[in-house]
Design a protein that fits this description.
It is globular and about 85 Å long. The strands form 6 sheets. A 7-stranded parallel sheet has the order 8-9-7-10-11-6-12, sandwiched between helices. The protein has a 6-stranded parallel sheet with strand order 13-23-22-14-21-20, with helices on both faces. It has 18 helices and 27 strands. It has about 675 residues and is of the alpha/beta class.
């Protein structure tokens, strides 16, 4: 007889603890999925084993027994240890952490293997020679992999410098050592391009793919292939960091600066932190790559926590693109009221004349960003969130980008009845319409969340662009990250100010990164590319330094501000959000927690806990939200999170009409 401590698959905070059961199966292992009777009615529940012992530490009056074990799903001890760590690190439930590692979907009833990339042939071609800089960067990575050392590297290379080739050489070394590789990319749109290159180099049989655009059945089968050791490389977006490998030698994070590596759903994990935790246990190597590293990562490379490896030249030896900033205030003064500056229009004409492709970047989707009445000034808002609705012309609808609410656009003002309804602002859909009017002979397409809802649509659009069937590609962040097309001669950043005006201490950093990354899509072939940046704040240092592609100067400017304001990396920020259907409940919960936190902390820490207030987006989907911010000094986070964990554990005992969500170092304060 064995005795097991299990985490129950149950949503309630009140059952977030480990329960002890007897188990008649001697083969039971830590990490195994089991069925156990639970609760007053002894209903069967799924559970995961966190501990196995031969005897009980104390007597139980009515000890229950596990009913059965799942032979297909058994997590490793390393994974269970990581789940324990996630619970205390991110203040989540045991089962929330476990669910990150377990497969969605189920077995195929027909026994058919669902492999989404089995027919992928990859990008053929010989293995290119390394540049001197690439070879120098690869040397310490290979040494660390051979020695089975846990090391952290930052591959800091300008756009087009050949970082992907370094990734693939490092992966090859890892496979040579008999170990496994996880390759993370920030956007699903990038997976096909990376998959094509890796399959071309290593073969389709070596590779599994994990991301949310796969069907549930495909995800289950890919998970099974990984778990059974049938593949050696996993490629995917953020969640691929949870691949059930048993011998991880290398985890690669391409474009490590991207906010998409931070989860916006519970548990609010950071993929970099999870990767580090897993690699510490496997004695593996972390390789982060970026042309615009996050301020925090670059700071850690300055401190020696990461070894920085630099690629200062493009692989093809072509110069970085020529960058021009167009002051949109001057355009207005000159009578140009369109969203396309004269400089960008002229550059587009020239690029099309020379058979070059164009990418236009705007980080706003939809047609118009809000609808307003010219008579009374009322703005059409979401009834559930109170946020202005965005007009989508193609669907003939207005939509809320936070809760998904949709309705028909009004013909008259809902407030005053006036027919003077006006559409304001510009999104990618409107840009597509205007560009099609300006250049009727050009093939224009859009790449954003609205145009890529159907499965495979991202890959189809990018494939057409690669083949030259699209002349002008307009998109949101999907087009600004990591795409590598040799015939792109021009990139236009339609509005560089969108991210500058977000109420967030990282707004300048995000603006610099987006402009630099978007600009990096140009001139990746044999000719120098051109970039036009349109801005109403062209004098801002983020715009000026991005135009010069001068990361080092931007870092020096930004790190001084972070130090003065005690923002990360000089502190850790903890955001606590209280939500309820009743606004008073959310507000009262926030105030109650504030008092408990102040009481739990020592006097010198109390000044870093800020008074609760209504969240910037106070109401989302009929739910009211209040928030509180805590600023933890560098190296002191654990004492703060321990206090929060104790309060959270005590709070779960009582029934409550509110929910509490804790986010460590959030990437959004909305």
């Amino acid at each position: 007889m064995k005795y097991i401590d299990v985490a129950i698959d149950n949503k309630s905070e009140q059952t977030d603890t480990l329960y002890t059961y007897g188990c008649q199966y001697d083969q039971v292992q830590i990490g195994q999925k089991a069925s156990v009777p639970f609760g007053v009615g002894d209903r069967m529940r799924e559970a995961y084993v966190f501990r196995v012992s031969d005897q009980l530490e104390k007597e139980y009056k009515n000890l229950k027994y596990a009913e059965s074990l799942d032979e297909d799903i058994c997590l490793t001890e390393e994974i269970i240890e990581t789940c324990r760590w996630m619970k205390t690190r991110y203040l989540c439930k045991y089962i929330d952490a476990v669910k990150c590692f377990t497969p969605a979907g189920s077995k195929s009833k027909r026994g058919k293997q669902r492999n989404p990339y089995k027919d992928e042939v990859g990008e053929p071609g010989r293995v290119p020679e390394l540049t001197a800089q690439q070879a120098e960067a690869l040397k310490p990575i290979r040494q660390a992999i051979s020695a089975r050392q846990h090391r952290r590297f930052l591959l800091y290379g300008v756009t087009g410098s050949g970082k992907t080739e370094v990734y693939m050489r490092a992966a090859a070394k890892c496979l040579e050592e008999g170990r496994k590789v996880i390759m993370l990319v920030p956007e699903i749109s990038l997976t096909k391009q990376i998959i094509g290159r890796f399959i071309g180099r290593f073969g389709a049989g070596q590779i599994a793919v994990l991301h949310s655009r796969l069907s549930l059945g495909e995800r289950y089968d890919e998970w099974t292939r990984i778990k059974r050791g049938m593949v050696n490389i996993v490629i995917g977006a953020r969640s691929a960091v949870f691949a059930p490998f048993e011998n991880i030698g290398l985890i690669i994070l391409d474009e490590e600066h991207e906010a998409t590596y931070k989860s916006d759903m519970t548990p609010k994990y950071d993929a970099v932190e999870v990767a580090l935790k897993r690699l510490q246990q496997h004695k593996g190597v972390l390789l982060c790559g970026s042309a615009t590293p996050s301020i925090a990562t670059f700071y850690r490379s300055e401190q020696g926590i990461y070894q920085r490896l630099e690629l200062t030249k493009r692989y093809n030896q072509v110069a970085l693109p020529q960058v021009q900033v167009a002051d949109m205030r001057d355009e207005l003064r000159a009578g140009n009221k369109t969203i396309i500056s004269r400089a960008l229009y002229s550059a587009m004409e020239n690029a099309l004349e020379h058979k070059q492709q164009i990418i236009l970047f705007l980080n706003r989707r939809g047609y118009s960003t809000f609808i307003s009445c010219r008579e009374c000034g009322a703005v059409l808002k979401c009834p559930d969130c109170g946020i202005s609705l965005t007009y989508h012309k193609a669907g003939g609808r207005v939509a809320c980008h936070y809760c998904g609410h949709e309705e028909e656009p009004p013909e008259t003002c809902p407030d005053c009845g006036s027919r003077y309804i006006r559409y304001f602002g510009t999104g990618t859909e409107k840009v597509e319409e205007i560009v099609s009017e300006f250049f009727p002979e050009a093939a224009v397409e859009r790449l954003d969340l609205d145009s890529t809802r159907r499965k495979g649509s991202i890959d189809r659009i990018l494939d057409r662009f690669k083949k030259g069937k699209i002349h002008i590609l307009i998109g949101t962040q999907l087009v600004a990250k990591g795409l590598d097309f040799r015939n792109v001669g021009l990139v236009g950043v339609i509005s560089a100010d969108v991210t500058l005006n977000i109420p967030d201490f990282r707004s300048a950093e995000r603006t610099f990164q987006l402009i630099t990354q978007a600009a990096g899509r140009a001139g990746r072939g044999d000719e120098t590319g051109k970039v036009i940046i349109q801005s109403y704040q062209p004098e801002h240092y983020a715009v000026q330094l991005a135009a010069k592609q001068d990361y080092d100067s931007f870092y020096k400017e930004e790190i001084q501000l972070r130090n003065y304001m005690e923002y990360p990396p000089y502190s850790d920020l903890i955001q606590i959000v209280f939500s309820s259907k009743e606004e008073e409940q959310a507000r009262a919960a926030a105030e109650e927690w504030y008092e408990k936190i102040i009481k739990a902390l020592k006097s010198e820490k109390k000044g870093r806990v800020f008074q609760p207030q209504a969240a910037p987006m106070n109401k989302i989907k009929d739910t009211y939200r209040y928030c509180m911010l805590i600023k933890c000094p560098q190296g002191k986070r654990r004492s703060y999170t321990e206090a929060l964990l104790n309060i959270k554990e005590a709070d779960k005992i009582k029934k409550k009409a509110y929910a509490v969500m804790v986010d460590i170092n959030p990437y959004s304060f909305v």
